[in-house]
Task: inverse folding
């Protein structure tokens, strides 16, 4: 049961039929070689890697976990070897620039790989996963020399990268950070301080690790305005590019976590480590956001991964486990009992998983189109618009999908009953692994503040209105079975706009109104966006329900109906709670909050 | 941080002011000694036991877990010694009959003890907890000899009990069970078969364990109609009551679970074990329900326990952890940042925990009043009515409170951010421990079928209408600040009645309509009942907001407002989804459900 089968059918449907990626690539000026066949073959190869190399390490990664031996991290058996296959297959370079050894494919393709290897084994996938943010950051802000020294080795997969932000006393509030950087005569900096929760912070996959580190340069101001970004390699790099002596980066401990045991979450002590400034002095937070946005998209995909994993296994179990008879009469009278998939309440759980997983996938593909536009858009206006759009979609994706991914993982456990709670079956690990997605890369509460307090409020909802306008325009073109869904979604975009205006007006008098509404507001937007994905899926599927693969397309229509009947109504509660204001949230004094 | 403080203030408020337990005891004919002072002193002593003896074993129980050594279970260090204190304090006998050595106190008092020791350490509390069901079953159905032999030793805490239902191929569907019982010449039975998931199935607290076992007697019919109940001791008992030779009950393994590691979840093999029939032949399921109903009330309380534990710790953390400034300006300008309790989204989580915990507690007290009435009611009609009422309240309590307990545990983790996910802090264990509540003693899906398909449907909603009528009558008496809440709840009882009629009518044509609606129906009822608890709490608190303990009473009013603003609106979604029918749940064929 710990195996994994990539849902290629649905990946293709979302990619080509819902999101029309081939035209998208053509409009970005990609070679006509990048057609459906080519993308499919990349997905298929990625699926093989995930199914054959990565998925088999799922359980062992959890049980063995990582060990810190003589200051070096030992990863679970087989992890290193699977990375070797990954690297040799050229997967690390897929979506990076050709001038640094990459294959120059768009991010939308790379993200689909993230889904397959991530569903196969999220903890494993984080080792290569963290590198992407480091590459993107170096690509955008690094000097030529830094790119030659570090970026090329990250692209080839020879080395991997990390992101070092958090310190024991500061997670969300990076302004408090204490790690300091003292400038040296040779232009480098001496970095000193403690960092915690560094995913893939040390491991045995590769010869060198490239840390991207937030620190405060000597003489810089307090708070976020004095933060700079540095590249700090585990081993110094000689002028000829060969690996030099060990840098002052010490792994002082590993976190003992609820899940993702296969990934080494490190405490790192920087002890006069040699580092190099990336980008401008005191502009580190801005540079860091490049990394963080990549990581947040990765975490959005994580939500999808855990939902998909739960769905696959619980569907299989529900078809297999015999228990009680259908209320409408025995469906398999020759067997001792009916398989539990005949029971409506079990179906409710399976259908919820299916509806969230498939809409989530379509959403991720839609989101990564924006990332493609930022990189390859024809002009600055296009890039800027895509950047604003991605800025809205990312916090929704991160918070909504990890929240629902966790829900779906828990539904998976529930379908398994008692078996779900014990380690002989793969459901409880999935729940434990899924839980971190709601916390790291900015908690889901922080995502909701980012959405409403920054992305929506700072441009007076212009970016939001551009999105809702696009949705309504699409809704006008919907026909047939998609039409009633489009009508609902179109109406919801108006509701969201109304909610936005009301909250922003209240927030002028009391800024706490933003925080009081933000989480429920984000979730409302998430359900609305998934509803749009379902309307688009119906639009794409409805003409194909009598052709080849008819059952697949018919299931799309039925699942959409389920989503609108049974999941989307949650927005009725969210609208009411988001609009109920901050008063009853804020009214208790500290004394009243006593136990 | 692994300590625990019993919320005595709120326990007293719910017990005496909301639920008026002293008059209740007087009306049941209890001695006037059983007054507020006496109950308070029992609660206070129970709190000391929980805080001093049981809570300190919380973390070690999780980390060490149980071990099976030479066929015997070794519990974590200190567990056995704490039980010794429990036993010597007479806590096992609290609510059991005086003629068998008990103290004859009502169940409502015992359940409050369940809350305190359960919040301190749920896994530990299950060892004595399981005994209560065994005692109740023996008390109700056992022969005089069985009572003398087993019940007296369970009451004194000299021995403990278990409940052996599940087999590898049958959990919910007990009709499939294979454990067999062969009658012997001496009137005993030889029991053979495999049982799994036996909580506290073996341990080192006591000299003997009394298993209550479901099995099929030789010659009995297939299915549930051929199931009988047996008492099977770990050690046979000699005629003089002394412990005899080892019976054929072998612990063949321990489950490796996600949580509640401190409790031994055993696989037991009955190998020609000597057992004795309890109650009538082939009426085992009915007898077993006595046990199960006790266990389900216990599990309802478990939901409350995890919510309370999460609330205590996250409140403390939120007052302590400094991160970011309040959006309305620095609240503690002298500190590096404000404590996170100033942020509305953190408060949303804390207030949700508080609102659920306090309403849950009032609900449990209300529920156990019914249990008291069954045992001590003045006439058969009273007992019967209480039994019907408890039959409604139990599945709601079990499913709603474990579901929300899990949500509150997860909110606790969320308040802690990254710290919540690591084992140095007590939040991730609470989430893992809480998760089982939704599964065992009948999954929450099964509870919802029990509520709607059995308890509500079988008497044509008569029992439900008796409850809604009581609620509306109370609502008429509400005044002041309680009045608007009462109005809302009164209206919701009408909605629930309307939903009930509609679903039952649809179910006449298609029985699957029950299963399609049941879970959302139960949750609707749960939120409504908690809303009623809040209305009752406001009614009780409002006259005291200017007296002693004023902040406590004012917080009640504010928290009620929060509940009605931010939690109760979830019923808007649940009503819609519960009423959306079975079609879109059931429409997918097996082929369409393929991956």
Result:
């Amino acid at each position: 049961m710990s195996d994994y089968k990539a849902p290629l059918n649905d990946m293709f449907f979302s990619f080509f039929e819902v999101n029309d990626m081939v035209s998208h690539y053509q409009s970005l000026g990609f070679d006509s070689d990048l057609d459906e066949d080519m993308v499919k073959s990349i997905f298929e190869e990625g699926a093989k890697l995930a199914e054959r190399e990565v998925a088999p390490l799922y359980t062992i990664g959890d049980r063995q976990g990582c060990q810190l031996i003589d200051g070096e991290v030992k990863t679970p058996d087989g992890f290193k070897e699977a990375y070797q296959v990954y690297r040799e297959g050229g997967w690390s370079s897929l979506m990076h620039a050709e001038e640094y050894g990459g294959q120059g494919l768009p991010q939308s393709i790379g993200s689909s790989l993230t889904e397959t290897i991530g569903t196969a084994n999220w903890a494993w996938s984080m080792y290569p996963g963290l590198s992407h943010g480091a590459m993107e950051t170096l690509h955008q802000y690094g000097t030529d020399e830094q790119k030659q020294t570090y970026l090329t080795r990250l692209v080839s997969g020879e080395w991997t990268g990390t992101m070092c932000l958090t310190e024991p006393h500061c997670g969300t509030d990076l302004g408090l950070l204490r790690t300091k950087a003292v400038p040296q005569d040779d232009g480098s900096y001496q970095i000193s301080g403690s960092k915690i929760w560094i995913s893939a912070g040390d491991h045995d996959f590769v010869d060198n690790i490239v840390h991207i580190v937030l620190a405060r340069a000597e003489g810089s101001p307090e708070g976020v305005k004095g933060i700079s970004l540095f590249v700090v390699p585990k081993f110094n790099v000689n002028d000829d590019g060969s690996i030099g002596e060990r840098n002052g980066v010490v792994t002082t401990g590993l976190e003992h976590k609820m899940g993702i045991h296969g990934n080494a979450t490190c405490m790192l002590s920087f002890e006069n480590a040699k580092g190099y400034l990336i980008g401008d002095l005191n502009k580190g937070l801005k540079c860091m956001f490049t990394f963080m946005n990549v990581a947040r998209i990765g975490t959005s995909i994580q939500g999808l991964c855990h939902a998909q994993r739960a769905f696959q296994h619980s569907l299989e179990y529900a078809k297999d486990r015999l228990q009680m008879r259908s209320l409408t009469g025995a469906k398999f009278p020759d067997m001792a009992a009916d398989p539990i998939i005949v029971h409506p309440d079990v179906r409710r759980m399976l259908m919820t998983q299916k509806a969230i997983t498939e809409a989530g996938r379509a959403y991720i593909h839609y989101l990564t189109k924006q990332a493609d536009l930022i990189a390859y858009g024809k002009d600055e206006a296009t890039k800027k618009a895509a950047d604003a759009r991605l800025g809205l979609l990312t916090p929704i994706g991160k918070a909504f999908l990890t929240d629902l991914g966790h829900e779906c993982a828990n539904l998976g456990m529930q379908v398994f009953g008692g078996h779900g709670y014990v380690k002989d079956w793969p459901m409880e690990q999935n729940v434990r692994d899924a839980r971190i997605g709601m916390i790291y890369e900015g908690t889901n509460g922080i995502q909701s503040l980012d959405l409403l307090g920054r992305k929506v409020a700072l441009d007076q909802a212009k970016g939001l209105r551009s999105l809702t306008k696009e949705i309504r325009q699409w809704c006008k073109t919907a026909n047939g079975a998609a039409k009633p869904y489009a009508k609902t979604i179109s109406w919801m975009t108006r509701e969201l706009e109304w909610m936005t205006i009301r909250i922003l007006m209240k927030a002028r008098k009391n800024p706490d109104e933003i925080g009081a509404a933000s989480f429920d507001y984000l979730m409302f937007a998430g359900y609305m966006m998934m509803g749009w994905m379902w309307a688009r899926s119906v639009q794409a599927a409805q003409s194909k329900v009598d052709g080849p693969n008819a059952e697949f397309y018919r299931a799309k229509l039925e699942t959409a109906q389920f989503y609108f009947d049974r999941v989307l109504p949650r927005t009725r509660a969210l609208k009411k709670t988001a609009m109920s204001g901050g008063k009853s949230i804020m009214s208790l004094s500290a004394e009243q909050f006593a136990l």
